[in-house]
Task: structure prediction
Amino acid sequence: MGDIFDRGLFKPPGTFMGLDYGHDLTGRRAAVLGIPYDNGAHPSRIGARDGPRAIREASRLIRRFRPPDADFDPLERLRAIDCGDVILVPSMLDEAEAVIEKAISLIAGVGAVPVTMGGDGSVTLGQLRAIAKLRPDLAVLHVDSHTDANPGEGRAKATGNTFVRAAEEGLLDVAASTHLGMRGTFYNPGIFEKARDLGYGLITYEEMRTRGVDDVVAGLKQRLAGRPVYLCWDMDFFDPSCAPGVCAPIPGGPSAEVGLRLLRGLEGLDFVAFDINTVSPPHDVQGITAQLAAQVMYDCMVLLSRAPRNVSGNS
Result:
């Protein structure tokens, strides 16, 4: 796979949940990939470049069986593998996007589903470029407290306008894509209107709280049924009480229980990529954000392993 992967750092026991480490994807349905990058543009909270290391460390606390509803080993069912980290230099965004795109293309191009851990929101665009080449009818479900579809004035390329650039490049079907969980304060007015003007669906956290998780999940599954889905999950979706170690913590969000119930309710969708990002270890408390991110990744693999093509035996 060339020289874009760091081949020497994450051999057992340092892999995600003790997975095998390597780059031979023959027969693999899922591949974990670390993207140790941040754009270095935040005025006070830089550190998401260390997210993959922290998530791997925290994943030692996650067990492989989740009874009663998932009393099986999803990693074994998927023959998942940890590919280590992409070699990147933080703040060199153009180069990082190209390398990320190449890495994801190598994984997804042979039929494995990438399960990635960032890294700040800058890691998403390169991944979308790779997946869109394989799945031109791609829809995105973006779970975040921010839209990341902000106007780009002054920062033509930044974490806050990833989904502006994705829409402009035609990487996804904006009419089928949804931003979910938005709340808090912003630098500019009209942030939600900007996302909607681009064509995205948008469900604020207040709307989700009012409607209830089950109703929101039912609507999402109807909207996304039959579409290849890229799940982008920013850890600042969660309230800082359970996820303090993120790039931009926003008080007043969902608990770990509510967020995980939302995620687990998405069973049945055709997921083609999982992108879990924005864990910032320098700002974490006792590693609880990294542990929750590891749980999110595990639950993503449960969802993937329950796709009809991956089921063998009882679930």
In short: The chain has a mean pLDDT of 91. The first helix runs from residue 51 to 58. Residues 178 and 201 are 4 Å apart (CA to CA). The longest strand covers residues 270-277.
